[in-house]
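Researcher: Sequence recovery benchmark, item below. Answer with residues only.
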């Protein structure tokens, strides 16, 4: 499945150990901090096709899934819950409530993506 991701490699040491080719390492360095469409594999790795016909493969900790526009996450009564990635922090999601006309009823609040993921697994995960 294709998703928007931002390359967020904080430590290049493991990549330097695994990649013997400086040109290949340069692809990762150039991609770092940029947003791409990526194919997310079943094991959580993201494969990004780069414009020059090359590709990079990122481990789950080397990228963040990005939601760039307000997206409907559900409904609470007559209000709509919307979410998007926080432009100030790649590891945070913003949430807000809007009415049927799109007027903001509750201002955006932030939650770390990891908290959202853990809550989802706890509430809806299969035991």
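Model:
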């Amino acid at each position: 499945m294709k998703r928007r991701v931002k390359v967020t490699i904080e430590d290049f040491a493991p990549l330097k150990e695994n990649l013997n080719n400086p040109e290949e390492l340069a692809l990762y360095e150039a991609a770092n901090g940029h947003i791409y469409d990526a194919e997310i594999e079943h094991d959580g790795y993201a494969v990004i096709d780069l414009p020059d016909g090359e590709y990079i493969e990122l481990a789950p900790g080397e990228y963040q899934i990005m939601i760039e526009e307000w997206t409907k996450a559900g409904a609470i009564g007559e209000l709509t819950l919307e979410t998007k990635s926080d432009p100030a922090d790649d590891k945070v999601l913003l949430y807000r409530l809007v009415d049927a006309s799109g007027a903001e009823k509750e201002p955006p609040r932030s939650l770390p993506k990891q908290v959202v993921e853990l809550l989802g697994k706890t509430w809806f995960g299969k035991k």
